[in-house]
Protein 1
Amino acid sequence: MTGSVWSDEQIARAALARLLEPLDNVGLALVAAAGPVEALQIATGATTCGPQVHRAFLEVLDASGHRVRTDVLIQAIARWQTRVGALAPLRDLETVRRFGGTLLIPESDWWPKALADLQLEEPMCLWVRGDNPAPIPSQERVVAVVGSRDSTSYGLEVTGDLAAGLVARGYTVVSGGAYGIDARAHRGALKAAREDHPLPTLSVLACGIDRYYPAGNEDLLREVAREGLLVSEVPPGSSPTRYRFLQRNRIIAALSSVTVVVEARWRSGALSTAHHAAGLGRSVGAVPGSVHSVNSAGCHRLLREGSAICVTDAAEVAELTGPLLAELEEKREDKPALHDGLVVEDLLLLDALPVRSSSTVDKLATVAGLSVPGVLAGLGRLETDGLAQRTDDGGWRKRSR
Amino acid sequence: MTGSVWSDEQIARAALARLLEPLDNVGLALVAAAGPVEALQIATGATTCGPQVHRAFLEVLDASGHRVRTDVLIQAIARWQTRVGALAPLRDLETVRRFGGTLLIPESDWWPKALADLQLEEPMCLWVRGDNPAPIPSQERVVAVVGSRDSTSYGLEVTGDLAAGLVARGYTVVSGGAYGIDARAHRGALKAAREDHPLPTLSVLACGIDRYYPAGNEDLLREVAREGLLVSEVPPGSSPTRYRFLQRNRIIAALSSVTVVVEARWRSGALSTAHHAAGLGRSVGAVPGSVHSVNSAGCHRLLREGSAICVTDAAEVAELTGPLLAELEEKREDKPALHDGLVVEDLLLLDALPVRSSSTVDKLATVAGLSVPGVLAGLGRLETDGLAQRTDDGGWRKRSR
């Protein structure tokens, strides 16, 4: 394989990505034990698995909590055999290069370190595509904005605002390229992107990065490829299956420091992304909505179960990305009310002061339940604060403002 | 004071309620140290405070975290002096009796035990009024439903549904009798009340129970007095001051096992009730709403800060009233999805099965990435589950449903 622009590891992982479905734990454990090049040889039957590698392989599975029979590898090799004939890693790599893309692997510099938190479930590789390829930022700068395909105008509006607000703050918005909330998240991010933003948005797809799925989002996905990145763990040409959709969600969650669910029904794929995020110790935000909207029921479920934090705008999402990197957000307008800081006696006195007529000190003492000296002292303080004023007849009233 | 239908403690507390504003800690500590009858004597200057009582009095203040000067009582007595001339406890008691009411005091059987959690801030007494007086139920059966005076149609609708749902489950709905959310909570409770419900709703007022405040709610408050209870810690004739409103909120919170805030602005009195409830270790529920609604901003603030649990209907509120008494609510519809419980291999296989055409076992093995025996076993399981079917040409496809 010398002479190729691709490293041996890239070629091996490209082949393994076609041989194995995402999250094939047996295959992933084999790679962890033997490295990608030897693992491919073993998986395709080109070589047999030595006892040392086999022991390491079983240990990896055991350490990640998988109780397996000792013949699990033999079974798996038989299972994989049906796909060996279709392997053509160099062709796949050329395909992705033709699209202006490349193959990221854990051994490469640009590999998003955040994915290591997936441990054994770390993807075999990531096929990425973008006209102006930029590295995927570290998780502190990445926020996932996800939600249902069927969405309300409310959900779409909030999504657009969130995505735009996050991009304006320098974050990269990750989503899944689906209809509804996902699509609006990408669109909002693209719309808000400025020249100097390295990567406003990226789509993690459940199909190959050479495909536009769903078809109605073709234009959008083309624009994401132009201005951002399309990313997938499955090789070019792969079709999006339900299984791949579910597995794809773990990558969205792992790339991001915060996963925000804008709208989701009581049962929704977007909740799976949220649960992945929570499982990884990432923050989860949920946008509240009407209790009458079935499209918010999943968000309210997350809030009620305590799996998510209530977020209502981009500033609140940014706060969740971490204390170190979250900018100093302007505090929400929280002006002290007129009467903040008054002692109880002065509050009583203020309540007792008439607005139009005037009152005497003695009468104020009775109404407010204060002593005469207490009233005099309080009136002095309230006058200083501009809350009380003397009247022409020598009495007191509230200061008109 | 013999011959009166009122006990000495009732008469003394009635007088003290007029002498002291709510939450006058010095007065409350004096009552805790000396009992109401002697405390009244001391407070009015009819007798002096002996050294033993004075020591106990200072200890009560100290124990409740109040750092005071030793002359605090002398100062207070001077302060109270302005109201001594106006004391007429028997007249006040007669007034409340004319309205079909009575005076509850901590010494009486019907005193709501839950108020003891307020410790030194426990009310001096409660003036109550109701045409069909029923005891205030223990806190497990009482839920506060509160919110802003300015409310949206959304907030009003949710409030009405919540109150009705709670009363239908046998709870008593407590609120503050104000415009907006409070009023709708009372109305929803009254509307849902059945003959056999002892107490659908009660209003804790910031003014005397002989007054209708706000005036626009007079009809409503009359109906609450007919079908439920009006309750106040301030004596008949008292006007509602801002100070009394704020203090009143602690009673609403203390009577209830759960305080639900339906709508509240970022700064709102309803939040003070929620904070009182949280401070007492009671549950707080917040109803979510549109992130664009300023009337929901306070609820979202509570959710975000973790002070409240997200509630969207009466069943979810009922769950918060405690594990012992919350009925077994019908679980929200949560049918297993078609594909729940399938192993990963079967999910892959299901994804690989065509819907209209048919596929061979070998092709399925390649597409799904499974071995041929694995496909055969999986097809058997899927056929049993009604998810796969044989085609006339000997192949397989998804079962049409």
Protein 2
Amino acid sequence: MMACNREIVARMQSDVPLIPQLAAHLVAAGGKRLRPLLVLAAARVAGYREHGDDMRHVGVAACVEFIHTATLLHDDVVDNSQLRRGLASANAVFGNKASVLVGDFLFARAFQILTADGSLPVMAILSAASATLAEGEVMQMTTQNDLTTTVDRYLQVIYGKTAALFAAACETGAVVAKADDQTREALRQYGANLGMAFQLVDDALDYAADQAVLGKTVGDDFYEGKVTLPVLAAYHAGDSDEQAFWKRTIENNEEQQDGDLERALDLIAKTNAIDVTMAKAREYAEAASAALDQVSDTCRAVNVDMEPLRQLLKDVAIYTVDRAR
Amino acid sequence: MMACNREIVARMQSDVPLIPQLAAHLVAAGGKRLRPLLVLAAARVAGYREHGDDMRHVGVAACVEFIHTATLLHDDVVDNSQLRRGLASANAVFGNKASVLVGDFLFARAFQILTADGSLPVMAILSAASATLAEGEVMQMTTQNDLTTTVDRYLQVIYGKTAALFAAACETGAVVAKADDQTREALRQYGANLGMAFQLVDDALDYAADQAVLGKTVGDDFYEGKVTLPVLAAYHAGDSDEQAFWKRTIENNEEQQDGDLERALDLIAKTNAIDVTMAKAREYAEAASAALDQVSDTCRAVNVDMEPLRQLLKDVAIYTVDRAR
């Protein structure tokens, strides 16, 4: 991960000073670097060993982080967010223009690095995931304020906006390690299910987080009229009076009043909507863990020392859900 | 070009209906498709012949148009433009969110198509051009409202925002045609110089176009405080009173008053700033034309019937400047 961080800093350089300045703002804000970590971990599970200058997985990991960072920059512009991980967002500091353009730069740079790396399968995975990501974001936009959104549709949205890149990160790790097809598919499934669990928990925390502890703001999704599983669960379980409340506040989020968030939190508690969401997250986390059991016997036989890491990734999946307890 | 248009429409499809809807809005608005045309023309000059299902240059041409369209969508959001080619801009119709995200989608889709095409050199050219494009846009942003911008810096900006993709379009055409290095470089130089001429004329027209004839609005750059060659030429040739006018209006474009555009046009006429700009454009157009003389003898000997097309491209370069007369 230290090599990956160095790669990220080295490859975001540009003769145009504002680009590394803005990018550094996000790097300094200190994300979890979960996606590049997944590339590295998946590569190791699949038997990749660094030797000499063959550190391809580090470059691929940096690209995945660039693609993720580009979408964060664009999301914050699109949502007019003023905060990101508790600090002023890049658009709040540098303006919307710079954020859109530096996002574009990072995306282009990612494909420059991947081209130099030269693996068409890795590029196929990451360009497809990037297109799916954009589709997921557009789909999320069209479900906003829309309480007729089905749970299936919601799950499609979070697959696109989050799980697709998690899946791609794990799959590229497997490809770099030249894993067999079964192991590659197992790791892809792990990433996809982990991403679903991760986003479900994120959506639950938006109505449940202890802000001081988790650095998350409660109510952002509510204020934006986003249709997430906690809202859908509470809405579907509500009586007509409660459904009218959700319609008023989610379908016309700009006309929310003082006390609305408090009532939303009460209704979510009353209908056990957080439990519903967390149960769904746990299903995905368990599927992620189970997927790792599908790593091929051949792969396991060759990489005898990967067992502790595989176990750790199984624990990560479960911890993803338990962190919210 | 008809095959290319079909490819563009086919490849912008998505299960998320808003994506082709928004993309079709831009396609319907009917751009000149100059960049994909350059891919096809360069490929032909370099000896590419379509036969059977080997229509790779068409796919590459569509990708170049996708990359260009993505930047147009983002530019209009960034500049808050309400019009594009005389019609309501995509952001005016579909909103900023959708425009940013569909731009991201088109960019990702371009690299998906290129990955399937499988040419690493083509991908290297287009990913580098995309990064340069974003750098050019950021650079333009930092020169906005800044009258200390040098002419060299301005030329760097227009290379990044326009000429780099023109150069890349021509170079990828040559690569698809498996041209020798000399021919590839000749076509790249043609594109780069043509792009410079094209942008210089565009910047001149912003202060000179007969709106009814060219569908261009006069004064957009002025209202935005953009520092282009017509402004720099008029500013540098102006007396202290005139320089004070430019400082007030360009450095604080939001405080422009009624009559300011008219005075700007008068000062530009008085200082022959349009002539200065057009003379520079003509230099580049002539360099573009001359670059085509560097197409290798080997290439010319093999492709005896490319001579009329090569001559046409030379004429295009000169016409790029003469269209403004």
Protein 3
Amino acid sequence: MSISRITEVKSASPISFDDAIRQGVARAEKTLKNIKSAWIANQEVLVNENGDISEYRVHMKITFLLEE
Amino acid sequence: MSISRITEVKSASPISFDDAIRQGVARAEKTLKNIKSAWIANQEVLVNENGDISEYRVHMKITFLLEE
Amino acid sequence: MSISRITEVKSASPISFDDAIRQGVARAEKTLKNIKSAWIANQEVLVNENGDISEYRVHMKITFLLEE
Amino acid sequence: MSISRITEVKSASPISFDDAIRQGVARAEKTLKNIKSAWIANQEVLVNENGDISEYRVHMKITFLLEE
Amino acid sequence: MSISRITEVKSASPISFDDAIRQGVARAEKTLKNIKSAWIANQEVLVNENGDISEYRVHMKITFLLEE
Amino acid sequence: MSISRITEVKSASPISFDDAIRQGVARAEKTLKNIKSAWIANQEVLVNENGDISEYRVHMKITFLLEE
Amino acid sequence: MSISRITEVKSASPISFDDAIRQGVARAEKTLKNIKSAWIANQEVLVNENGDISEYRVHMKITFLLEE
Amino acid sequence: MSISRITEVKSASPISFDDAIRQGVARAEKTLKNIKSAWIANQEVLVNENGDISEYRVHMKITFLLEE
Amino acid sequence: MSISRITEVKSASPISFDDAIRQGVARAEKTLKNIKSAWIANQEVLVNENGDISEYRVHMKITFLLEE
Amino acid sequence: MSISRITEVKSASPISFDDAIRQGVARAEKTLKNIKSAWIANQEVLVNENGDISEYRVHMKITFLLEE
Amino acid sequence: MSISRITEVKSASPISFDDAIRQGVARAEKTLKNIKSAWIANQEVLVNENGDISEYRVHMKITFLLEE
Amino acid sequence: MSISRITEVKSASPISFDDAIRQGVARAEKTLKNIKSAWIANQEVLVNENGDISEYRVHMKITFLLEE
């Protein structure tokens, strides 16, 4: 009988959305065990004064399995 | 002045959605106090190779009262 | 030329969601004629101090046919 | 590399939502292989002239694995 | 590389929605560091037997920065 | 076994959203008993020719308990 | 200080959606005063055995002004 | 025990949305039996270089009854 | 490499929704070049004191191509 | 035959949401004529290092009437 | 007079979301003609026991033109 | 007291979604100052006759700061 919890995180990367997702999952791994998946809720880029994309931001719902 | 927190869980049962809800609340009770309610966000069934429903999955938002 | 009205109700039962739906339809039958259907908008359970599910709550949109 | 398709069905039962789900999955099994899951999109009951629930209707999205 | 977490709270006040928000943020401050923002998901008032508004309830998503 | 009904109202005030909510609940009290809560669905302001906010409009779903 | 109520209706016509809307408003006029507007929530057509559209169905939210 | 399937189509007409719906249902009739209804998900018009509406596009979910 | 902008308009007609759409597109043509499409976000009718539909209102998102 | 346009703005105030709305409408008045209404899409507060609410942010859709 | 159908697929790739989309379209090409577009409904990553992203999953709605 | 405006654009690229976003922001930079962010509303790919992805399309809401 499996029970899992969902935690919401926002992670950012100067490179790409895919990298922001990897960073977010990696950070969550530091405190959570049995991470199973991450659903992408929102994607946003920040733009600096030169008009360049400075940050790729991803809002994710991470699911991790609870121990019995 | 009451403040409560909401935690998202996914629980599963081989029997029914109602049972999956009970299991999810019971598991949350192990780590949380003052659980007040659980709102049903999503319901899904898993199907095994014989075409039978093997699992009833419920995605819930559980509300619990914070102590002052 | 059929015209029907929709009324929103929340009904509760200590037993199950299905029972809460039956109770809601039965109560609506006391004051409304020609009830045709009930669409389930939301489902929530209430939890008592012992951590048991004390109430199954259903929020429904009931459609009933208006007489010409 | 897995690819699956999603098909939408509405199934009904005079007994309960759980039964309507089982019926829907069983019917889909007749024509589809590798059914994996069914997500519940909508739930509605039909009411007859006596005010009794005559039908439990479920609108589901069924996911099945495509062969390579 | 910033990572932040989102926690969902419901807070209430007998005075106004703005006050309920302040209370909710203040309570979260007791247990969380680096709170950055709170997005208002839902607003509801409770009414007592005299027909007066007894409580302003706010459902918020609070974002706080995680330390590296 | 509690059953409640939901009625949708739009109320307006020249002062503030909070006042528009109070007005709406007060008006509903004239015709309905056992009002329990009001959920805020939408908020809009109207603007007059001078560019000033002339009206705060709130669209609410009011829940009231039905007598057995 | 204006307060208005919203009632949900489904009306049908064998001719067109516009006609179904007119029919719905006309029927509501029989029992309600001060009808101001009708927002179109949903549109659906029914199809008979010959494959022809037999009915244009509109689900509307009708707003009417309450008297002080 | 009725089971129906839902298929999504986009149909277009140079005349009107109603005509686009009729065309879509008529085309579906060529390959599907027991079509019961079509729910309108989206409506869009295309505009040509002269600024005239060249096409009325309707995105519909067509429900058809499966044989036992 | 095509880039287009989207502008939101509300247009009204005493005749029908289709006419309100044509009017809205025609008015946008006065100030915008390269209009490509209009997606229908919302539809509402206004009702006068005699209970007749006085106005068909359409809320649209108009897409137009930007010049390089 | 009225046609209006909708523009989306985000405005902020250190005092309250109501003030943020007034500021947003006032700023829009500087560049737009015939502003009619502002619908509140989103509300968010920013929190400073002391844990106090430093800014009330409102995301609004402002409707203004186009001249013929 | 163009009519197109929409089919929903979920495709996965160990490399990236863009690759998962390419794979999904390529697989659909095996059984469908005149594919025109694919709208991204959902994106999710799966995580293995080492905490690495093992799969990029995309849920898409693929539109293909029906022959007359 | 900061006020910003939101403009909706659709941009396309033959390479990837990330590139389409960069193109859209770069094009907006030609006419707008103080661009702060771009939220991704929708993502869609177009497919050519050979079944290859010919275009990555992104629908974005770009936020830019208004000068006092």
Protein 4
Amino acid sequence: MHIQVIPVEGLPIIHPGDLLTEMICERVTFEDGDILCLASSVYSKANGYIRKQDEIVASAEAVRIAQKTHEDPRFVQAILDETTDVILEDPFILSETVTGHVGVRAGVDHSNIEDGMIILLPPDPMGAAAGLQNEIARITGKEVRVIITDTCGRSFRRGQTGVAIGWSGMTAIRDFRGDHDLFGHVLEITEEAVVDEVAGFANFIMGESNNGVPAVVFRNCTRWTGHDNLHFNREEDIIRKALCKK
Amino acid sequence: MHIQVIPVEGLPIIHPGDLLTEMICERVTFEDGDILCLASSVYSKANGYIRKQDEIVASAEAVRIAQKTHEDPRFVQAILDETTDVILEDPFILSETVTGHVGVRAGVDHSNIEDGMIILLPPDPMGAAAGLQNEIARITGKEVRVIITDTCGRSFRRGQTGVAIGWSGMTAIRDFRGDHDLFGHVLEITEEAVVDEVAGFANFIMGESNNGVPAVVFRNCTRWTGHDNLHFNREEDIIRKALCKK
Ligand SMILES: Nc1nc2c(ncn2[C@@H]2O[C@H](COP(=O)(O)OP(=O)(O)O)[C@@H](O)[C@H]2O)c(=O)[nH]1
Ligand SMILES: Nc1nc2c(ncn2[C@@H]2O[C@H](COP(=O)(O)OP(=O)(O)O)[C@@H](O)[C@H]2O)c(=O)[nH]1
Ligand SMILES: [Mn+2]
Ligand SMILES: [Mn+2]
Ligand SMILES: [Mn+2]
Ligand SMILES: [Mn+2]
């Protein structure tokens, strides 16, 4: 059975309080085992994880960094408020968030929202994904897997790709440890970050601009086993250690 | 029209001289606009980009690095032979290849090949993708787009994902510069590395072990415009600059 990838079309502009899960369920007929990828931006708008820029008071630290990044100090303050560790201050802020995710501007954004408003990443994206999964089960009776996505840069390669911010009904990593290749050798590549591979393709379908497709459904994907240890911690990550010495 | 993702099943173990394109065309009915993703490992085996480890003579440099990485010095030599710049020597070799691709062990591998044999990345992956595209047009009369993939690590996030090594019939980056979001703001995220997003999902379908699916076809994907400047050069890449100071 071929895999199908279904963009969820026709969603309106989302605002706090909108019944986003209901709106998605009205536009797609879920089947058991489907994977729903949802843009974090839209999840955050529906759930009020947004801020008004002119209600933010910038700290001295935010003012200092804003001079280097040429951004509004209040926008920088919003980023710092989401940040547990600043890895790089300029040319752009690269920081770790409370979930262990490392991203440019801590995933804070002012695209696809009204002027003067800021979108934050969901504070508990794993809980968000689990909540969506439960709601969909309640509304449709179907057991759907969920990934919350964001668009994110990376090193060595230009351009952004979609990554997984939260997930439910699957593990982030497909673990091949102990598995064998076609010739019986024990595998060297053992941890495939499948949740990011699915999120990336969903992001390709969504696009970055005014496509209006914040949700994508994957049908007939395999299941896998593994673990959820997607984020390197500071000691494990060679590249991060090098950056911090800078 | 929904996107379909079709694994190419039933391919045998591939050896130098095998008519890989013919073998793929026998197993899938291509349509105009399809995207074929092909694992670089299989392309390299078919085209003889493999080496016998015991025919390699390790240099003093290879011996020195092999002591740190706990690998066979001849395997390290094969990696150095594919490398134009060593970024990191241990705990694993991270290096740039002639195409500008940065990868662990320069993409050199001894999985999914006979004992004592080594698989290299295709030396001209852009040419490889264009050649495949032409051959498929000749065999089937269809205009198919092609991506050559490899499995690759990344920073900040654990686990490997599929990335694009070569491509034809598309640009690597989808360029959103000058485009607007749903509220008319000029976009901040402007360069989406769509070729990696597609390669990543193909890699998810392939898996890393004995699945025997080195080729995946994507049907009904959009087309995009942009550029092919996928690899940061040394000066552009903040993270690489930090690593090199190490
Ligand atoms: N229908 C609808 N689409 C939206 C809305 N906000 C964003 N999108 C779309 O969702 C996709 C991803 O948007 P983006 O801002 O890049 O989200 P992010 O990657 O999570 O930061 C794009 O297709 C946007 O056009 C919204 O409120 N309603
Ligand atoms: N049928 C077939 N499948 C292969 C062969 N070599 C590798 N594969 C499959 O191709 C996929 C990717 O293999 P992998 O070694 O990870 O390739 P890489 O990611 O390009 O290094 C997996 O499903 C393998 O089982 C081969 O010679 N024949
Ligand atoms: Mn975002
Ligand atoms: Mn996005
Ligand atoms: Mn490989
Ligand atoms: Mn692989």
